[in-house]
Structures are given as C-alpha cells and as structure tokens.
Amino acid sequence: MEQYWDLIDVVEQTIDFAFQKKYHLNMYQYLKDNKLTKRDVQSFIDSETVKNINLLIYDLEDYLEGGSDNMHQQLREGYGHLGKPEARKIKTYLEGIIQDAWRYEQERKPGRRKRATK
Questions:
Q1: What's this model's pTM, rounded to 2 decimal places?
Q2: Could you please report the per-residue DSSP string of 81-104?
Q3: pLDDT of the chain, 118 residues: tens digit per residue
Q4: How remote is the C-alpha of 97 from its chain's centroid?
Q5: From CA 14, how far away is CA 37, in angstroms rounded?
C-alpha cells in the first residue's frame, strides 16, 4: 500500500510540473519499473487524484473550445496564461497518464501460487 501513496505523490507532483512545461513522467514505465500490483493501480484509477485529473482535462477541453459565456470567460482567466498550444500539450499529457494506468491495469495478471515440488 505504500507504493500506492508514492504513486499518488508522484502523479500530483507531475501535474504541478506539467503546468511549468515539464513533462517527466512516463506513467506506464513508472508502474512497470516499480512493479505495482493490479490492486494498487485499480485504487489509483478510482482515486480522487484521477478524478481531479479528469476535471482538469474537461476544463482544458472547454478552454480550447472557447466561447463567450461566463464559464468560458472564467476558464480564459484561469488558463489564458498557457496559450492554446500549451494547453493541448498538457491535456494530452494528462490523458496519457490515465491511459497508461488503465493499460497497465489491464495487462497485469493476478499472481499465481507456485506448485510445491516433490
């Protein structure tokens, strides 16, 4: 379970770095290198962190879409400093983090007990 909390910390730091135009995390490779269990990855996918990432993605999509209503005006104020090309990069990067977690979770096989040798 400690690996789960380490994963949450790494991903939250990665989100902060993404808004500073630094894209360091290859999520699939991180999960593979640290040999996280399927259960830990499933817990991560169901976590508040992933829900927050999804909200960020939706906000960035709405910002990129543009519009003149109050919601789009607030999004322009919040994300306008990025510019649309950078917002697209961040959105794609965040989507990749979630997709890599799903892919790793699907590929991870349950552990099997070894047979006792006679």
A1: 0.85
A2: TT-HHHHHHHHHHHHHHHHHHHHH
A3: 688 889 999 999 999 999 999 999 999 999 999 999 999 999 999 999 999 999 999 999 999 988 788 888 898 888 888 889 999 999 999 999 999 999 999 998 766 666 776 6
A4: 4
A5: 21
